[in-house]
Structures are given as C-alpha cells and as structure tokens.
Amino acid sequence: MRETIELSISSDKAASFLPPEVGEDRGLTRRLVLPSNDPLLEKIREHEQVWQRCGSTMLTYLEIHREYTPKELRQGELLWLRVRPFFEPTGEDCGTVYDETKACPKCGVGARQVGPLHLELKRIPKRDIARTLGGELVVSARLAEEMNAAGIRGYELGPVVSRQGKPTPHWYQLLLPKCLVELAPQTRVGADFFVPEPDAARCPEGHVVGFDVLSELYVQRSSVGEVDWLCTRQAVGPRLGAYRPLPPLLISQRLYQFLTARKVKRFDVEVAHLV
C-alpha cells in the first residue's frame, strides 16, 4: 500500500517556513503531495499546531490517499467501502421521518427511520449505488435484483419514494440492520490529521469515536460475522442538522468481486485489517 498526503497551505503562511521550490504555487495556496513518512510532514504539523492555538489554520485542503495493488485488494478479507460522491438533498430534507426519542442526546446516534425513504428522485446519480449527505444508501433495482440472485447477505431493502410519497420502481434503500463490527484500537481517529485532539465530535458514551478516521481501518476479527454487507458499531463524524455520524461500511471479498465483475462504479475501497 502506498499512502500519500495531499494538502494545500495558504501561500503567505507557507512562505514563512517552506523553501519556494517545495510544492506547487497556485497563487493564494501552495499544493504539496507527500509520502506519509516524509519528515516534512512533522514540520508542517508543528506550524499547524501553532496556528490552531491562535484560533486559525494554515491549511485550506487535506486528503489522505491510499493506493493498493490489485493483489492487496484481492487478498483483503474485508474492505472498507466509501460511496462517492455524496448527493443532496438528504432524506430528512425531503420529508423522511426519524424518531429521535431513543437517540443519544450527546451525539444523535440511535435515531430510527420511520417509514420509507423520501428523496428528490431526479437528483439521484444514475449509477447503481449512491449515498446522500445524510448517509442514506440507495441501490438500483438492477443491482438489488442481482444481489438477491447471487445470495448476497447482510442487508435489507426498503422502498424509495418522492417528496410527495410516490414510489419509484428504479431504486431501493439499502439497509444494514446489524452494525456489530468492533473497531480495533489500531484505528486512528481524530479531529484532523495534524491536530487530532481535542476532538469535539467524540461521544462520551462511545457511540461516536471521533470526527474522522485518519488511518487504515482495523477491526476485531471476533466481531465479524458471515455476511457480505457489514458496518461498525461505532460511528464517525459530527451531527450537523440532517447530517449524522455514520458507521464505516465494510464489504466482504465476495461482495467486492461481485461489484467489480458487474462494473459497479461510484465507490472506493481500502483494505480493512482484521486483528
């Protein structure tokens, strides 16, 4: 696996400690792509910590990229799946009802969807799998039929309706009834890559482990069942209106091969390590 950190720093702040030949000048910002073990990252971390202590930041963008060989992906027992990109509006914005009576008052985890998923149907990307900014997952009728025929396990299907409640035959909501996989301590979670603490998203009750996953995903082998769609018990991310903390999604090697054989797009995978 090759891991790189892509980041942009405001040009004036970058000039205070970076030589002019380091990075790509983009006017107001300077872009860098560095291996995750590059010593320069520690210098950037030190300067970013200073700026954050002053209530500011010098970073305008940061993304972690992990590239796996085909062999590494084939050997992974479990894969961490991210559906990209998200679309909006969310189900809640379109009239989907959530029962918050049993949700955690600190982080919002535990709200139960009541009734069908309402969406702006014309806004759903015309692919086989998509996810709203609120975390609701939908799959095409074609993919739903093929998963059922192939005996894919660990999911349920729910109806998708318009804002006005009119059902569509083209989409189903993908529901994962049991989120039981336990994150292992090796998974690094925090507020951001350079200054992970303090992390305001973390729930003191343990429902939300932090703002974002900063490392590869590690899960406890003993918590993984014999299914193809899985998710972790712990969620990640802040609660911001209709945007909810979400558990990382996991798929079996069998499901990964199923999706790639059918040329399903709009998702990325990383190896999830079982420990």
Outline the fold blueprint.
Layout lengths: L1 E9 H4 L9 E2 L3 E7 L4 H14 L5 E9 L2 H6 L2 E6 L2 E2 L9 E3 L12 E3 L2 E2 L10 E4 L4 E4 H10 L5 E6 L5 E9 L13 E2 L21 E2 L3 E3 L9 E3 L17 E4 H9 L5 E8 L1
Parallel strand pairs: 6-10, 9-12, 16-19
Antiparallel strand pairs: 1-3, 1-4, 2-3, 5-18, 5-19, 7-8, 10-11, 11-13, 12-13, 14-15, 17-18
List descriptors.
about 280 residues, alpha+beta, six-stranded mixed beta sheet, five-stranded mixed beta sheet
Care to describe what's here?
The chain has 275 residues and is an alpha+beta fold. It folds into three domains: 2-67; 71-83 and 179-274, no CATH class; 86-175, no CATH class. It is 16% helix and 32% strand. It is built from five helices and 19 strands. The chain has helices at residues 11-14, 40-53, 70-75, 141-150, 253-261, and strands spanning 2-10, 24-25, 29-35, 59-67, 78-83, 86-87, 97-99, 112-114, 117-118, 129-132, 137-140, 156-161, 167-175, 189-190, 212-213, 217-219, 229-231, 249-252, 267-274. A hairpin with a 5-residue loop joins strand 12 and strand 13 (167-175). It is globular and about 60 Å long. The two termini are 18 Å apart. The relative contact order is 0.17.
